[in-house]
Amino acid sequence: MLTMEGSEKLESSLLTQPWASVCFGKSTFLAKACFNASGYILLISDLSSIWYERTNTEVVGQRSKELNKRLTVHTSSLLHHLSSLMSPLLAGEPDTTTSFSCHHVAGGLSLHVKSELSGLPFYWDFHCCPAPPEMVSRHLLRPLIQMSLALQYQVQELTSLLLQKDAEIEDYRESGATLSRDRLRTEPFQEDTFQQNFLAESLPQICRAGEGTAFTSALQQLYVAVTQQEAKQNEKRRRSEDAEGLASAAETTGHPHPPPPSQENETAFSSERTTPTSSPARKPQLPAAKAKPKKAKGLFS
Questions:
Q1: What is the CA 61 to chain-centroid distance, rounded?
Q2: pTM of the model as a whole
Q3: How far, CA to CA in Å, does 115 sit from each of 27, 34, 94, 97, 122?
Q4: Are 107 and 36 in contact (CB under 8 A)?
Q5: Contacts for 41 with CB less than 8 Å, ≥ 6 apart
Q6: By C-alpha distance, which of 250, 253, 269 is closest to 261?
Q7: Cα 151 to chain centroid, rounded
Q8: Which pLDDT belongs to residue 211?
Q9: Secondary structure string (H, E, C) spanning the chain
Q10: What value does the mean pLDDT take over residues 39-57?
Q11: 268 and 285 in contact (C-beta within 8 Å)?
Q12: How far apart are CA 129 and CA 52, in angstroms?
C-alpha cells in the first residue's frame, strides 16, 4: 500500500494527465500514467473495460528482483526508468528500442515491457486489475461530460459570433460596399441547416475514423483544463472541510461536555429521593460550597 500522502499526490497528478491513444499489436487502447518517488498509477482502457495498477516502492523493488535478477538498482532509479519508458509511448512517439505487449489475463490485463537499463536487458510487467467505479467516474466519465458541456458552450458562442458577423456584412452591403473578390462571398449562416448537415455528413466520418479511441491534441488540452478545474475545486473543498474540523475541535475544547455523575453521587441522589418524609430524620448531605453550619444546625436539630 502507498502512504496516504504519497497516494493522494499520485491521484491528484494522475487526474490532470490526459488520456493518450496507444497501440499494442492490432489493438488500440486509451492510457494514462503517473510516476513519482513513492510509486506509480497506470490506467488503461479499451472502452469496454478499464484496468489499473497502483504500486509503491516496496512492490517495485520486489518485482524488479524477480524479473531482473542481474540488475541491482535503487527503486527511485527504477521508477524514473519506467517513467522514461512510458512517456514516449503516451506522447505518441514510442522508443524503437522498447517493446510493449498486452495480454488479457484472468480478471485483469497484463502489460509486458522489454527494454534496457545500464546496458543489461530490462523487463517489467504491469499487473492491472479492474478499476473501481469511483476511479472510472473520476478519470473518464465526469471529465468527458464536462468536456461535452464546454464544447457545447463553445459552439453556442461561435454561432452567436457568426450571426453578428453576418449582420455586420449585411450592413456593409446596404451601405454600398462590394467584394473585391467574388470567391470570398458566403451565404448567411443558418444554425439549423448547419446542425442537420453535421449530423448527416460529418459525424459518421468522424466516428469511422477515430472509432471512439482517438484523443486529439485539442481534446487532450481540453481534458487537462477540465480536470485542473476539478482538482482546484477538490482542494478548496478539502481546505474548507479541514477548517470546519479545526473550528469544531476548538469549540469542543473551549466548551467541554460536563462529566457524567459518578455512581456514588447517583446513589446518594437516589437515596434522598426515595427516603419517606415520615421516617426518622436523616440529615441530607448538602454540597460543601453551599453548606451554612449555623442555619443547618437550627433547621435539622
A1: 27
A2: 0.71
A3: 21, 19, 12, 6, 5
A4: no
A5: 10, 11, 14, 33, 34, 52, 53, 54
A6: 269
A7: 21
A8: 56
A9: CCCHHHHHHHHHHHHCCCCEEEEECCEEEEEEEEEECCEEEEEEECCCCEEEEEEEHHHHHHHHHHHCCCCCCCHHHHHHHHHHHHHHHHCCCCCCCCEEEEEEECCEEEEEEEEEECCEEEEEEEEEEECCHHHHHHHHHHHHHHHHHHHHHHHHHHHHHHHHHHHHHHHHHHCCCCCCCHHHCCCCCCHHHHHHHHHHHHHHHHHHHHCCCCCCHHHHHHHHHHHHHHHHHHHHHHHHHHHHHHHHHHHHHHCCCCCCCCHHHHHHHHHHHHCCCCCCCCCCCCCHHHCCHHHHHHHHC
A10: 94
A11: yes
A12: 6
Is a pLDDT exceeding 50 seen at residue 285?
no
Q: Is it the case that residue 268 has pLDDT exceeding 70?
A: no
Confidence band, pLDDT 50/70/90 cuts, at residue 209: low
The whole-angstrom distance between residue 12's C-alpha and the CA centroid of its chain comes to: 6
Residues in Cβ contact with 212 at an 8 Å cutoff, skipping those fewer than 6 apart: 47
Q: List the grid coordinates of 224.
A: 487537462
Q: Are 108 and 130 in contact (CB under 8 A)?
A: yes
Q: What confidence score (pLDDT) does residue 264 get? A: 46
Local confidence band at 242 (pLDDT 50, 70, 90 cut-offs): confident
| HSE of 173, CA atoms in CB hemisphere, 13 A | 10
| Neighbour-count burial for 241-265, b at 16+ CB within 10 Å, e otherwise | eeeeeeeeeeeeeeeeeeeeeeeee
Burial 120-149 (b: 16+ CB within 10 A, else e): eebebebebeebeeebbebbbeebeebbee
Whole-angstrom distance, CA of residue 284 vs CA of residue 268: 9
131 and 141 Cβ atoms separated by less than 8 Å: no
Burial class (CB in 10 A: 0-12, 13-18, 19+), 32: buried
